[in-house]
Amino acid sequence: MYKILEKEDIAPGEKLYVLDAPDIARKAKPGQFVIIIIDEKGERIPLTIADFNREKGTITIIVQEVGKSTMQLGNIKKGEGILNVVGPLGIPTHIEKYGTVVCVGGGVGIACIYPIARGMKEAGNRVISILGARTKDFIFWEDKIKTVSDEFYITTDDGSSGKKGFVSDQLKDIIDNKEKIDLVMTIGPAIMMKVVSETTRPFNIKTVVSLNSIMVDGTGMCGSCRVEVDGKTKFACVDGPDFDAHKVNFNLLNDRQKVYLKEEKEAHKKCRLEERISGNK
Amino acid sequence: MAINKNKTPMPSQSPGERVKNFNEVPLGYTQEQAVAEAKRCIQCKNAPCVDGCPVEIDIPAFIKMIAEGDFIGAAIKLKEKNCLPGVCGRVCPQEDQCEKVCTLARKFDPVAIGSLERFAADYEQGRGKIKIPEKTKANGKKIAVVGSGPSGLTIAGDLAKLGYKVTIFEALHKAGGVLVYGIPEFRLPKSIVQREVDYIEKLGVEIKPDYVIGKVHAVDELFEMGYDAVYVGIGAGLPMFMKIDGENLNGVYSANELLTRSNLMKAYDDSYDTPVIKAKKYAVVGGGNVAMDSARTALRLGAEKVYNVYRRSRKEMPARDEEIERAEEEGIDFRLLTNPVRIIDNGNGWVKALECIRMELGEPDESGRRRPVPVKSSEFTIDVDVVVMAIGAGANPLLTSATPDIKLNKWGYITVDEKTGMTSKKNVYAGGDIVTGSATVISAMGVARKIARVIHESFKYEK
Ligand SMILES: Cc1cc2nc3c(=O)[nH]c(=O)nc-3n(C[C@H](O)[C@H](O)[C@H](O)COP(=O)(O)OP(=O)(O)OC[C@H]3O[C@@H](n4cnc5c(N)ncnc54)[C@H](O)[C@@H]3O)c2cc1C
Ligand SMILES: Cc1cc2nc3c(=O)[nH]c(=O)nc-3n(C[C@H](O)[C@H](O)[C@H](O)COP(=O)(O)OP(=O)(O)OC[C@H]3O[C@@H](n4cnc5c(N)ncnc54)[C@H](O)[C@@H]3O)c2cc1C
Ligand code: SF4
Ligand code: FES
């Protein structure tokens, strides 16, 4: 059992959890993830380590409730536990002094971009952060990310916070202002990462994405997480999750994320029904 | 008394019935059947069967006990040499080992040694009381075992009995290695694996699931944490693909993925959350046990049609005969001398068909088997929804790439001193599939036993 020490609503349908996991906290690096299993019948859910505290022995995850398992997690209370947490998994984001690094986080990807922005800042980079979401309600960790950024932007689809538009519009503005950019790091929905990748491609700006393909073991044993990079098959869990954005086959990623759409919908319905029956919201 | 020429048959679920469930296929001997079968053994003085057994079980002795009705005694006898008899009785290729050299086999069926082993182990379990052997006094030495497959469990059990404090670090959330994630429930019930794991824990072994060594702890850190030696038994769990077009389409699985979802994650049971694709038509590529397990799993998931596509002929299939026969009985459609060339999509990112080419057998290759060669212009397609690649597994580099001072061979398997199991890194030993490549449960266990003795010797004279 891994105890939930803190739990917080961070945005509509998005919750933050601080877990007691000292061995993982000791080793975690930006860009790595854990896999959790809620209970005996649960599935293995990969989640980025959004923050870690080595002294306290804790890791933080931020979870968007998109289906059965993530909603079920949402019902677990502070003080209760999660059956399994394994990690840190994946190759850490490569952090070095590049010069100017733009960190682009979309939706729940905002959580994933924070430790990377912090790492890049600590390595002596000039960090420009761009956070994007549908509306201002979905922006979180603004202050936290500001403190590790030299420049900071928000975009929302409806203009309720920051600039109206997509993260890629903001990125394009920065590029057009002739700012020299050495690296763009981007994490978010597949479609957002693809658009960011297309924005930087004509300018030959090195761009790295973190791919969230469907995983099972997370140790390179099953191949569920296959992605195509530079025409070659890679396992996102062990060869990534970071890859050169300009070489990623995003269409394949998008297709493969939908493998279980049918099963997920059924599970989701069942889960909703059970919640209603048990009187949970 | 005349010897019955044939093995006492073991009752089993009928093919029509068993493809609708995940329960075990053979049902095990009754006491009467076991005694009858045990009495077929002529108690040879030279006991060739013992030489045929990779862990040298005293086969005539345990069989004699069964014949005399001392079933518990038989189980204890087995456990002297084999700490996983319930597993081995079910999955060992006895037809290539003890039963192959059984004296009776010269004229009749050999003694059903495997079935008797299974009977004794199950009988002891059924009685509820498992005898825990006396433990030697703790000797103050700590051993870290990486991986909880048959080799890891065996060495952990052996060293614990000798007084070592043993911790097993396992990457997955359940102990057992291939026994829990690979081999299906209908061939090896998970409750049997669990009871063997429980037994190892009762011997004082601590099992830490969710620990991926090379990630959460480096091998060097294990020494810093106070372990005196490390045993690496991480198996050969890297799935292979054919590198043909369409292999990343939705609906293409590695055997490991299909089996892990179904076995370890119990996707076949709707009360579990992990999904698995349930489709009408599957093609499973490969001819080993893994392919048979995948094909039979697909049937039980509700497939209407399951093809097995294998590039050589039936004779060269590496799967156990028994498993091939069961697959045939269950209606798997074997397409032998056939090799996939590409996977065709339906325009929406999903598999629509498997394009294959016919093969014929040419000259023998390095493995001694006749090399399959494609027959020109013989391509044809099979309509399927799911393709399962069961063409073998390789060495997973996760631990070894994080531990560069462990030397590997050109395929990425760990090189060891054959006699001792020592790797190029001090006090680090390795055994099982990560050394030999995909092999058998019993060979992984056998080598682990040997290395347990080497480790014990190495500490014996230390002050
Ligand atoms: C490396 C990595 C890091 C991730 N980090 C985060 C994070 O920090 N916060 C967060 O909210 N989400 C993260 N995800 C996505 C998260 O794992 C999925 O949203 C979650 O598994 C959905 O489960 P569900 O049952 O609630 O939804 P479902 O209804 O089962 O699925 C909804 C969608 O989630 C995706 N998904 C489903 N199962 C898996 C799986 N086993 N592995 C990966 N994706 C899956 C699919 O695209 C699916 O369409 C990450 C995924 C990966 C691979
Ligand atoms: C589907 C299938 C069917 C089979 N059928 C048979 C059969 O009928 N008869 C037979 O004799 N053999 C059979 N085999 C082969 C047999 O299962 C293997 O030879 C045997 O399991 C090897 O044992 P092992 O201990 O070396 O490794 P494994 O059983 O592979 O166990 C290795 C363990 O190490 C863990 N691990 C890996 N990396 C790490 C890490 N970095 N940190 C921590 N833990 C790690 C893995 O998660 C795994 O649990 C079959 C194999 C498969 C896949
Ligand atoms: S070889 Fe066969 S008959 Fe002889 S002792 Fe062994 S099992 Fe019995
Ligand atoms: S999740 Fe299984 S290999 Fe990547």
Written account of the structure:
Chain A is α/β, with parallel strands linked by helices and 281 residues long. Chain A is built from 9 helices and 17 strands. Chain A has helices at residues 22-27, 68-74, 109-122, 142-146, 167-176, 190-200, 236-239, 250-256, 261-277, and strands at 2-11, 14-20, 33-37, 45-48, 51-53, 58-64, 81-82, 84-89, 100-106, 126-133, 151-156, 163-164, 183-187, 207-210, 226-229, 232-235, 242-244. In chain A, the strands form 4 sheets. In chain A, strands 12-11-10-9-13-14-17 form a 7-stranded mixed β-sheet, sandwiched between helices. Chain A has a 5-stranded antiparallel β-sheet with strand order 5-6-2-1-7. In chain A, strands 4-3-8 form a 3-stranded antiparallel β-sheet. In chain A, helix 5 (167-176) packs parallel to helix 6 (190-200). Chain A is globular. The mean pLDDT of chain A is 91. Chain B folds into 3 domains: 15-127, Alpha-helical ferredoxin (Fumarate Reductase Iron-sulfur Protein, Chain B, domain 2), CATH 1.10.1060; 142-237 and 395-459, FAD/NAD(P)-binding domain; 239-393, FAD/NAD(P)-binding domain (3-Layer(bba) Sandwich), CATH 3.50.50. The mean pLDDT of chain B is 92. Chain B is an alpha/beta fold and 463 residues long. Helices cover 34% and strands 16% of the residues of chain B. The longest helix of chain B has 20 residues, at 441-460. In chain B, 52% of the residues are buried. Chains A and B meet through helix 1, strand 8, helix 8 and helix 9 of A and strand 5 and helix 13 of B.
